[in-house]
Write a structure and sequence with these properties.
688 residues; mainly beta; seven-stranded antiparallel β-sheet; 1 helix; 1% helix; 45% strand; disordered N terminus
Length: 688
């Protein structure tokens, strides 16, 4: 496990050199899709606010239009509300016939020509649903994302999952891949218009595209969860928004609410998170974090445990059970560390009802978080309906509680006692309900602020802090672009006080300079220190110059009784810096292990061959093979069988990395015990 960061959290003057969280002079809001018009959102508003005391203009552009459709003048004391057209207005929410096609008139762009920074918060509601999305500004722009949200359970005509994409440059190629092959995406009236295993689109500047995987009244496993963790890759910067409009958390139920947010690209993520529990019921339906991996072998640690609660691969996700919160009460907390950068979402309840859930995309904690959030405008208003208003605060433990000031429409709010966070001495949390008006949080140390509320069946959640204060430390490979001879270093050449390199999440002893010559394939990142602050680079993958196919085999039981089913798990990964082609794995079971069934993550399996075709650099695939174990030699009470998997491909596998391709299974016969009781034995003597 990566040990907890030894962060010394004083008053961080360095933070003043970085922009505040989610504040930007430019914001993109891609359009989205709701499962049925007016069922998730009918009334919609966008709230503009800023810490700036001097007024400035914000221009609003629709789609590819180069002329503003409207503008607003805002300052710290005069936030503004932009009221949008209702329901499927083809701007923020698209109609059926505008789903799955390239759009020129949808999506919004907000820009301050003066360069001043401001917040953009989108809120919507219908008769029983509500949700909030906060734009991440320029930090939302990037080329590599994962589709995020939480599993959408149950059925109702309004239940669907959505992904909106907006391009920032002409001729931008975007590919969606890595979803369940059974996922279907809407094109107009055809809910299954896209069924390919990957889908590529090309957008020009400010054009947009909306994906929808529709659940309705016919839920399937693929549409409930198969889209989570899908990869969105672009060759130029894009912005995305994602989530579900609407989604449910009970199998077999029509319960539903809306949940959307805007994530940041993969190079803006982190490995350390703190979650604060909402008002959800103790059954855990609506109260849990969900972690999405961006790399293979990502370990997840909870509340300082040295044992991972789960290990997941790139594109996979894990729901952390709500039982890991410090309590089953509102305001309790949970500390999560991961070995590699992850997307972190939080499902939280507006009330104890299972149909008031909200969705937050959560920022990693860092000593470079801002010290001010000023402000959340009109916290009790959700596009015209009054909701309860409250905030959650994550703060540095070195900041005295008395140095944290919360104000709302009534003035200064009394701060409750802080809650300690198990597993870290760096952070503490606060929960403040019943706030009104414009809400501001001021501190002398780093803070992260979220807000929440509900009205009847409507639950709302939003996150106003994080992401953009952590410097982007991008790594590059110099020398050879593969092993041996690959040298890793910071592409900008920026200098820091201290350095520590990690390989596959494990510290590399003695690797404490600004560059590192890699000796084996893997995923590397650099942890740097400047003054009191410690933070991490993006991860970079290094592969061999020569072909290296890695085989690994495990079995769920090494010792079994006769006539027992066992499960072998075989993984294959390509550590070559080029694709392996015509790859086939062969697993011939020895006499005594009888083939029963198999399932694969990619390719096709016809016993004994797993045909994968092409395996790209770093790609990892899995075969699960079930066999029945029987003793074949009736004179033996115990037999051991060895099962070995082999690989063939166009290239010669140099086996630079040692394979673990065999497993032994010992089979025992249970010999019945015979007990003889109350038997009469007669001896007869023959006489001559």
């Amino acid at each position: 496990m990566i040990s907890a960061k030894q962060i010394v959290l004083f008053i961080i003057l360095l933070c003043t050199t970085w922009s505040y969280a989610q504040l930007s002079d430019l914001h993109y809001l891609p359009p989205l899709r709701q499962g049925s018009n007016n069922q998730a959102f009918q009334q919609q508003s966008i709230y503009l606010s800023t810490p700036e005391t001097t007024s400035f203009i914000v221009n609003v552009f629709q789609g590819t239009n180069t002329t503003p459709i409207t503008n607003f003048t805002i300052s710290n004391t005069t936030p503004q509300e932009y009221v949008l057209g209702n329901g499927d207005n083809d701007v923020t929410l698209v109609r059926t016939d505008n789903t799955g096609v390239v759009l020129r008139d949808a999506g919004l762009r907000f820009e301050a020509p003066s360069g001043n920074n401001f917040y953009v918060n989108f809120r919507g509601k219908s008769g029983s649903q509500a949700a909030s999305l906060t734009s991440k500004g320029r930090i939302a722009l990037g080329t590599s994302f994962k589709w995020g949200g939480v599993p959408n359970l149950g059925s109702h005509v309004s239940k669907s999952n959505t992904l909106g994409i907006m391009a920032t440059e002409d001729n931008t190629t975007i590919t969606l891949s890595g979803y369940d092959p059974n996922c279907e995406f809407r094109v107009g009236n055809n809910r299954a218009g896209i069924t390919d295993d990957s889908y590529t689109i090309t957008l020009d500047e400010n054009e947009s595209f909306v994906f929808e995987t529709y659940i309705g009244n016919s839920p399937t496993l693929a549409h409930e969860r198969g889209w989570i963790g899908a990869s969105i890759e672009a060759d130029k910067d894009i912005a995305i928004s994602n989530g579900s409009l609407n989604y449910g958390r009970q199998v077999g139920s029509s319960n539903r609410d809306a949940g959307i947010d805007q994530p940041v690209p993969e190079n803006r993520l982190g490995k350390e998170y703190v979650f604060i529990r909402g008002n959800g019921n103790s059954n855990g339906w609506t109260e849990f974090p969900l972690i999405i991996a961006t790399e293979n072998n990502t370990q997840i640690f909870v509340n300082g445990s040295a044992t991972p609660i789960a290990t997941i691969n790139e594109g996979d996700f894990f729901e952390i059970p709500s039982s890991n919160y410090s309590a089953n009460t509102v305001g309790s907390n949970m500390y999560v560390e991961t070995s590699k950068d992850v997307y972190a979402y939080q499902c939280m309840g507006g009330s104890t009802n299972a149909f008031t859930q909200g969705l937050n995309f959560v920022a990693p904690v860092s000593c470079l978080l801002p010290d001010t959030m000023d402000n959340i405008p009109d916290i009790t208003d959700a596009a015209g309906v009054t909701i309860t208003g409250g905030v959650t605060i994550i703060a540095a433990t070195t900041t005295p509680d008395s140095n944290i000031t919360v104000t709302d429409g009534t003035g200064i709010v009394t701060l409750p006692p802080s809650s300690a966070v198990t597993g870290t001495s760096d952070w503490k949390t606060f929960y403040l309900p019943s706030l009104t008006g414009n809400v501001s949080v001021q501190s002398t140390g780093p803070i992260a602020v979220g807000f929440f509320g509900f009205n009847g069946a409507r639950g709302v959640a939003g996150y106003y802090s994080g992401f953009d204060t952590v410097p982007s430390i991008d790594l590059q490979i110099t020398g050879n672009n593969c092993l041996p001879g690959a040298v890793l270093e910071i592409s900008s050449g920026e200098i820091f006080d201290a350095y520590q390199w990690y390989s596959d999440g494990v510290i590399i002893p003695g690797a404490t300079t600004s560059s590192y010559t890699a000796s084996e394939a893997g995923d590397y990142f650099l942890r740097v220190t400047r003054g009191p602050c410690t933070y991490d680079s993006n991860s970079i993958s290094v592969y061999y110059c020569d072909p290296d196919v890695i085989l690994n085999k495990t079995v769920d039981q090494n010792i079994v009784s006769d006539d027992t089913n066992i499960n072998f798990t075989i993984t294959v990964e390509n550590f070559w810096n080029e694709p392996v082609t015509n790859l086939t794995l062969t697993d011939i079971l020895p006499n005594g292990l009888e083939f029963i069934s198999a399932s694969v993550s990619a390719g096709t399996f016809t016993y004994p061959n797993w045909d994968l075709g092409t395996l790209n650099s770093g790609q990892l695939e899995t075969l699960t093979l079930t066999a029945n174990a029987r003793i074949t030699n009736t004179y033996l009470s115990t037999q051991t069988f060895t099962n070995t998997v082999t690989n063939t491909q166009d290239q010669t596998d140099l086996n630079i990395t040692t394979d673990d391709s065999s497993e032994n299974v010992t089979v025992n016969i249970i010999i019945p015990t015979t007990v003889i009781t109350n038997r009469r034995i007669t001896f007869r003597v023959n006489k001559k």
